[in-house]
Design goal:
By secondary structure, this protein is an alpha/beta fold. It has helices spanning 8-35, 48-52, 55-68, 81-105, 113-144, 157-167, 186-198, 210-216, 232-242, 283-317, 366-374, 381-387, 400-409, 426-429, 438-450, 454-468; strands spanning 148-154, 175-182, 203-204, 219-225, 247-250, 263-267, 270-274, 323-329, 335-341, 391-393, 422-424.
Length: 475
């Protein structure tokens, strides 16, 4: 079978296949090191079949985790082998935790903890070395392969850089950019010239005799990366180009519309582009829900004595219900009822209406001030997570009347509702909570959505214990 190194899909297929092969190989090596390398085996050597049986489960777990944490989404965009190695180690840690949990509940056989430890230590290094070998093979292939030339027609710097990256940055590409034809406004052309200098490719004249040009230059691919206002150029020249080149591609000009990243679906053979694509789709959404459910269950069980003690203090110090229920806006703009420990008298908003809490707010009770400053008033939101209204990590939910104000005045505000609201979030651990800049909060929320992974959620949860509970803006 001939491998086409010019296709980006080939890189993905080779990386995925090699990663899974090495993970499975590491599991079997761990078995032989544990039971056939001279180590003491008090309970006797188990049959090899018992360990072979787990290989399909290993494949499923590692595929699910690697895709969910975004290892292949970032593939090809690592700045160095070091950052790629960090991503691999983080992904392998998460996958190993799930695998150990699976073996614990697997009733047929209790697998060796030493073998599991050897496997956990071995397989990340095998994946890293395997990818290093692939890079060396690719470099050798590129040195010994005939180049496939690409012509880029563009103007806007974002789309133009994307067009270059499809052919230049891709590790499996043997393509070389013949040159770029710049189309658009004067400002876009200047930006395009800067991009051409960055990627060291010449700028070609806008008007030319296409049959003569392609006869003289053996172009294999033409990429259109044109600003939307200049799409007339495509209509004018496309028919001549497709008659000369078999591989013609178009990068839609979506950068001024999308802040999260676009996605594409095929419906009855028709491409449908989603302007704002959430990374929490498919398996990612399932695993995040599993983490939320498990984390909420564990948190409720662990913190129930503290919550019971707080409930008793509220009952003894202030008349009224223990819990405060309030409408908030969450995923897809749907409202839900959020739970908090009550920190104010029951008629606190009867005169003021819905207002933001401020640093010197006189409404909270003495106990309420302590609860709000320490964020302990938010512990009942674990029940919201358990019910599925919220997530452990995500943008903080706001009241619908505040959302109506913000959505009119702050661009991109509603994009934060592409994911479930959270108890803690990227903005909160960086201090953007309470009566602080909504614009900065949105900036951090969108960064979280754009870069979501299970590992980022775990990092935020960990940092919440150091930065999230006590904060100068919590009042």
């Amino acid at each position: 079978m001939k491998l086409d190194f010019g296709k980006k899909g080939s890189l993905f297929t080779v990386q995925l296949s090699l990663d899974l092969f090495l993970v499975c190989m590491a599991w079997m090596i761990a078995y032989y090191m544990r039971f056939h390398a001279g180590l003491s085996v008090p309970k006797g050597v188990p049959e090899t079949e018992l360990y072979f049986k787990l290989l399909p489960f290993i494949v499923v777990i590692w595929v699910a985790i690697f895709f969910t944490v975004g290892l292949y989404r970032r593939s090809g965009h690592h700045h160095s082998p070091f950052t790629e190695g960090l991503d691999i180690f983080q992904s392998c840690i998460v996958a190993t935790v799930f695998f150990i949990a699976f073996t614990y509940f697997y009733e047929e056989y209790r697998y060796s903890r030493v073998a599991l430890l050897i496997f956990a230590a071995l397989h990340p290094w095998m994946i890293i070395m395997g990818r290093s070998l692939v890079r060396k093979v690719v470099r050798w292939h590129r040195r010994h392969s005939k180049p496939r030339w690409t012509l880029v027609i563009g103007g806007g710097s974002h789309a133009l850089r994307e067009a270059f990256s499809l052919n230049v940055i891709d590790n499996f590409s043997t393509r070389k950019v013949l040159g770029a034809i710049l189309v658009g406004t004067a400002e876009q052309i200047r930006a395009g010239e800067a991009a051409c200098r960055e990627f060291n490719c010449p700028v070609l004249p806008m008007q030319m005799d296409w049959p003569a040009f392609f006869s003289e230059h053996p172009v294999h691919t033409v990429i259109f990366a044109i600003p939307h206002a200049s799409y007339a150029f495509i209509e004018e020249h496309l028919d001549q180009i497709v008659n000369q080149v078999s591989d013609v591609r178009l990068i839609p000009d979506l950068y001024r519309y999308t802040k999260l990243g676009a996605g594409i679906d095929m419906i009855d053979g028709v491409p449908v582009i989603s302007i704002h694509e959430s990374p929490l789709l498919g398996m990612g959404r399932i695993l995040k829900r599993l983490m939320d459910f498990g984390g909420a269950f564990f948190g409720i069980a662990l913190l129930s004595p503290i919550m019971a003690f707080i409930a008793l203090l509220i009952r003894l110090t202030s008349p009224g219900p223990i819990l405060y229920r309030q409408q908030r806006m969450g995923l897809d703009g749907q409202t839900f009822e959020i739970f908090k420990f009550r920190t104010m008298p029951i008629d606190a908003e009867s005169k003021t209406g819905a207002v933001w809490a401020t640093e010197h707010d006189a409404r909270p009770t003495q106990l309420g001030k302590i609860l709000r400053k320490s964020s302990l008033d938010e512990l009942p939101q674990l029940f919201n997570v358990f019910r599925g209204n919220m997530s452990l990590v995500g943008p903080r939910p706001e009241r619908p009347m505040f959302v109506d104000q913000f959505r009119r005045n702050i661009p991109g505000y509603m994009l934060r509702h592409k994911v479930k609201a959270g108890i803690t979030g990227w903005a909160q651990i960086h201090g953007w909570r309470g009566n602080t800049s909504i614009e900065k909060r949105i900036q951090y929320d969108l960064f979280y959505i754009q870069n979501w992974s299970i590992w980022l959620d775990l990092r935020i949860i960990l940092l919440t214990f150091f930065r999230g509970f006590f904060n100068k803006n919590a009042y």
